[in-house]
Structure formats: C-alpha cells, structure tokens
C-alpha cells in the first residue's frame, strides 16, 4: 500500500509517499481502507517534532473515514465507518495511509442510508464530535445561553459556531484579524470581536455579557477568558492553539471569579462512541446543520495541505482524499 511517512521532524517537505506493508488486523481490530482523513493542528506539531509522543519514522493521522475490509467479524466487511485514532498514536499506524488498523472500540458505523461524501464524513472523526461534546457535555449549552467562542476561526471554533447557533440565543466569536470577519459571519456568528489578548476589557467596555465561554487558544488567554463570563457562568478550555500548555503562576483563588465554573474538555473514546453521529449526519444532509468550509487535497498534495494549515490559510477544515 501507499503511505505518507515522516522519517524525521521538519517542514512540510519531510512528508513522503512511500510503499509500506499493509497492517494486518489483530484480535479485536478491523482493517479500514481509508477514503479520507482530516488534518489536525496536533499533526503539524508532531511533524515539527514538538509532540511528546512523536516517533520517527511515523505514519501520522488522527482521523479517518473509510470502508472495513477485514477483521474479526464484529464489523462486517464493506461497512462504512468513521474512526477516532488520536489516542492510539504512535503505537498504531495513523490514517496517512491507504489502509489502517484500529480497535473496533474506536469506530462508528455510518448509517447505510447516509449519502454524504467522504470529505463531508471526514469531519465526523474529530472536528464535529469535539465541538459537540465541548458544547453540550462540558458547557451544558442551553437555549438561553449567550456564548463566546475564543479562537473562532479554528476548525473546532467554526464547527462549534455552526452547531451552537441552533441551540443558544447569542454567539460571539473572536479573531485576531479583521480579514477573518467575513468567515465568521458566514457560519452565523452574531458578533465578531478582534482579540488583542485583553478581551475581557473590551467586553466590559461594550456592555456585553456571556453565560458560557469556549476557549480554544489555551494558556495565553484562559485567565482573561475567566473574566469574560458573568457570575454562575462556565468557562471551558478545549484547545491549545496558542502554543502554551501550562499557565505560569496560576492561582485559582485569584484567577477564577467567585461562582464561575472552570472546566476543560479533551476528546475521549467514550464521548466519540456516544455523540449523536446519525442525527448530525442527517442534519447536514437536510441542510439544518451547515458545515464550515472544507478545503480538499489529494494524498499527493499532502505537503501543500500541511503548509496551508501551518500558515493559517485553510479557513476551515482541511481534508485529504486517497
């Protein structure tokens, strides 16, 4: 089979398409013919050598959709599935390959009547379940909520906006660039705020009020995000695209306002297995749920796909087709 292999850390050019042995499934596993996979910011960091569990050579890839071709019979051959691979790496081969093996516990069957294309199905591997679970499991989103999404132009931020606009009363999203406002307007944000790192001051000066905050930036902004929510509100940290993973000199008694709840969300297999996949796929098919922009590349364009994400040119979800 063909696989996209990283032999050493470096720029996008270290990604090479090579011939690789097809991985045989073991007991409790299935073999998937990968039809499409989404790119993740974590894969950029891993390729650069900044990931703690990065090993080389490596077949990366946290997300996959495809067709089951072999296994122990738990999932029939020919079944279309979406797979979560993120917590299996690097012990398992990733999805940057024509075939990958995964435990049956890490796949969801796609409804036989679903007519979504592979590129649309690819967003249900990580982007949609992460956004949905952060909103409804961590933030417990309610129709009366006023939601602030910090990091609105990330793939997760755009997906969260698309999902939340039908489930809360008001959504504000942040961006650092004026040129990205149109992108956020296109997914339904009610208000767009330019984030200079001191967002809480701007919110107070404009008389805005939020009951829930989804922070996708990380340690650089979370202390300020905690000041953006009203009493009894919830702030959820669900991303670290800002780069820093620790908060220096963090004193919770000072940083977390009284009565405000501070939580985090990290994807898990249990949540992946329980988010409403069939319902959300149907909502996309019927037009009730609009997806963010999907930028499509083919496997022989993997270098450009990585470069596009690394340079923040994607403006949506990057999906690679085999």
TrEMBL record:
Pfam family, one: ADH_N
Extent of the signal sequence: none
Domain Enoyl reductase (ER): 10-320
Protein name as catalogued: Chaperonin 10-like protein
PANTHER family according to UniProt: QUINONE OXIDOREDUCTASE
Keywords: NADP
SUPFAM superfamilies (alphabetical): GroES-like, NAD(P)-binding Rossmann-fold domains
GO function terms (MF aspect): oxidoreductase activity
InterPro entries per UniProt: ADH-like_N, ER, GroES-like_sf, NAD(P)-bd_dom_sf, Zinc-ADH_QOR/CCCR
